[in-house]
Amino acid sequence: MDQESNGAAENGFKRPEIKFTQLFINGSFVDSISGKKFETRDPRTGKVLVSVAEGDKADVDLAVSAARQAFDHGKWPRMSGSDRARIMMRFADLVEERLDELAELECLDAGKLLFLTKIIDLDSAIRTLRYYAGAADKIHGETLKMSSEMHGYTLKEPIGVVGHIIPWNFPTIMFFTKVAPALAAGCTMVVKPAEQTPLTALYYAYLAHKAGIPEGVINVITGFGTTAGAAIASHMDIDMVSFTGSTAVGRLIMEAAAKSNLKSVSLELGGKSPLIIFDDADVDKAVDIARDATFFNKAEACIAASRIFVQEGIYGQFVEKLAETMKSWVVGDPFDPRVHQGPQVDEAQYEKILQYIEHGKREGATLLTGGKPCGKTGYYIEPTVFTDVKDDMLIAKDEIFGPVMSVLKFKTLEEAIERANDTKYGLAAGVITKDLNTVNRLTRSIRAGLIWVNCYMQMDVDCPFGGFKMSGHGKDSGLDALHKYMHVKSVVMPIYNSPWS
């Protein structure tokens, strides 16, 4: 693979101003009660960008109190859906007006590619806000056909105060994936961004307030999972938690919810997604899909296709072409438009990925490309491809969350299905074939929440997203996400002497 200078894009690049580093509670930026701060770092260099307020339980209590007051007595849940929609549309417009600045801030904090962040992450954020704004005035229950002389109907009501805990790999997308449907439903909320990437969430809180979202509706607490996140999960006055992150932390959140007030929990967790390529596939196209499905966003993606199953008839050809295409894959500064892959988010993730690469070597997989760090500074790793991988190897079982692809050989459709399902996860999968019967069989047999056919990572705000098994439960995106932030209430009353039943 090619490697650009890690500072290649610094010439002519003006670092965006970091405007917000305090907690956002009840419509105002405030210091943490303890006065503590923590550092967020530039993944390109490992150097400190800025110190950010470190919220903990006391700050969460303040934020929840503000959200509870806004829900129980404030305007937002009591507005008409059309009025909420109008404010959400204004929020989207404000994000769009600052698209370049927000994309640069996201890349600076997370190491994401600038040009893709503009056309994918920020575009998705704006479309998500507008999609749920359009749904806000279309929330309604049903009239029930009761079997006796009774009239029954259902109401859909906002679930209450929601705690959103969002990950570091897609800070902007996940902020709006969770916040937008909750806003449309009439909920109030406390948002905890990942400690690695806190900066854009604070900016979005400012823009929400500027758009006219009332005080207390959106609160943002920056801090650590073990303190601020744990306080949200166990808080007695939070009605629901929506979490995206690791399966291990998802377990802790469910446990905390059960031990506190049995709050509703929605979890989008880890994955070890298979991409199954059959002999009839166009090999060149399959190689391109597999490469992008694995290494997009430096493979910091829960849906990354890190297990590539290739049927034996084209296995050798696929591996040869894959090795060739990886030679032109550029690792470097994410602000450089020539670059395909930026740095991993932080040192801990960087070291974890390198350890898995060493596991792959020791377990006997064949290292086709990559396998080591690159660059003199920052958290850059060569895109790594292992072939001759066996199902029981750690690199084929564990979610690595980094640029490591495992290529496995299979013979039959039945074998592919069995091996693809031989995982604790069930988030996503893909199939590449020209045979419609194969498509129908496989899409109905793979236990995963989202399956792509002859493509991969094609996401949309209207497409429900969430996993099976230990990849979690509950859906983000689509109208399913809107409905999860609402209670269904049944109302029944007698009807006397009705002319019809």
From TrEMBL:
Pfam families: Aldedh. Keywords: NAD, Oxidoreductase. The active site is at 268. One of its GO terms (molecular function) is aldehyde dehydrogenase [NAD(P)+] activity. Residues 29-491 form the Aldehyde dehydrogenase domain. Belongs to the aldehyde dehydrogenase family. Homotetramer. This is Aldehyde dehydrogenase.
